[in-house]
Design a protein that fits this description.
The chain is 36% helix and 12% strand. By secondary structure, it is α/β, with parallel strands linked by helices.
């Protein structure tokens, strides 16, 4: 959904720099041919989660592309090696989404725990059917990935008097101050009432939560995912929900987006599904859009963007001349 107010300041930055702006009619393009046509002749793109594959970046249609400025933090949709090889700068906007995503993740946790979505749908259907949920205060929250967003989620959990367990492949010296105990995945899954995922998607985390992990969770435990869909084996999750391996799930990201109308998760029981909107706070959106636009202007003027993820490109010579 487009919100003109979110992009006005970013558009002003690009206009002032003399950029000619083309707005894609279909946001979040997943079709390779459509994306190739949209990028033809472009010098830069303010990108979403559409796939920038090796094949796309090698295509003649993208031969002028100098900057991929990602709206958001994750850049798993971009083939970094291919972009670097071709001198394309890949920028992102870290730090700006932390609070918005953490608020949203905790909102999903609360909604799923107290079955708010079910109550709302029942009331809209003319019913009056109160249902029992599970208590959040004093419960145990397992945070998988205690990075920027995971840390902010921990702060919110502490306000609810939750016990916090966390696992992360990196040392997290701030964990104790956040009230989080660093543990292994096995213990986290076995003891947590809620498991919230906040890890980046890479070769080590793809399918991180599969059949074995779902079966290791408590039967009444609830899973929340606002990271990347592919961190979870969705086929295993569908079985887990139907067969009662876990108590339920709240999801904002999926392996394929947008989700097909007949996708099995849509009819799974005890699941709250949202359309990848954890970062969609208007104030946050303005800030992210401005930073992404400024990265394009900086790079096109031979200046290093504030944040870019393929520093190796500098040694190879960039198309933008940075």
């Amino acid at each position: 959904m487009k919100n003109p107010a979110v992009g006005e300041a970013a558009k002003a930055i690009l206009d002032e720099a003399g950029c000619e702006i083309t707005v894609a009619l279909n946001a979040g393009i997943t079709d390779a041919g459509e994306l190739r046509r949209a990028l033809a002749g472009m010098d830069a793109v303010l990108a979403g989660v559409e796939p920038y594959t090796k094949e796309l970046l090698a295509d003649a249609a993208t031969s002028e592309l100098k900057v991929i400025s990602r709206w958001g933090v994750g850049f798993d949709a971009v083939d970094l090696n291919a972009a670097t090889e071709r001198g394309i700068i890949v920028a992102n906007t870290p730090g700006l989404l932390n609070n918005a995503v953490a608020d949203y993740a905790f909102g999903l946790l609360l909604a799923l725990a107290r079955r708010l979505h079910e109550g709302h749908l029942g009331m809209r259907a003319g019913e009056w059917a109160p249902s029992w949920g599970v208590d959040v205060s004093g419960a145990t929250l397992g945070i998988v990935g205690l990075g920027r967003i995971g840390k902010v989620v921990a702060k919110r959990a502490s306000g609810f008097g939750m016990k916090i367990l966390a696992c992360d492949p990196k040392d997290q010296p701030e964990a104790e101050a956040l009230g989080a105990e660093m543990v292994g995945m096995e213990r986290l899954l076995a003891e947590s009432d809620f498991v919230s995922l906040h890890t980046a998607l890479n070769d080590g985390t793809r399918g991180l939560i599969g059949e074995a992990e779902l079966k290791a969770m408590r039967e009444d435990a609830l899973l929340i995912n606002t990271s990347r869909g592919a961190v979870v084996d969705e086929a295993a999750l569908v079985r887990a929900l139907h067969e009662g391996w876990i108590g339920g799930a709240a999801l904002d990201t999926y392996c394929v987006e947008p989700m097909a109308p007949d996708y099995p998760l849509r009819t799974a029981p005890n699941v709250l599904l949202m359309p990848h909107q954890a970062s969609f706070g208007v104030r946050t959106g303005r800030s992210v859009s401005k930073m992404a636009a400024q990265a394009i202007v900086d790079a096109m003027n031979g200046k290093r963007p504030e944040s870019f993820v393929n520093a190796e490109v500098l040694g190879k010579g960039t198309r933008a001349g940075v």
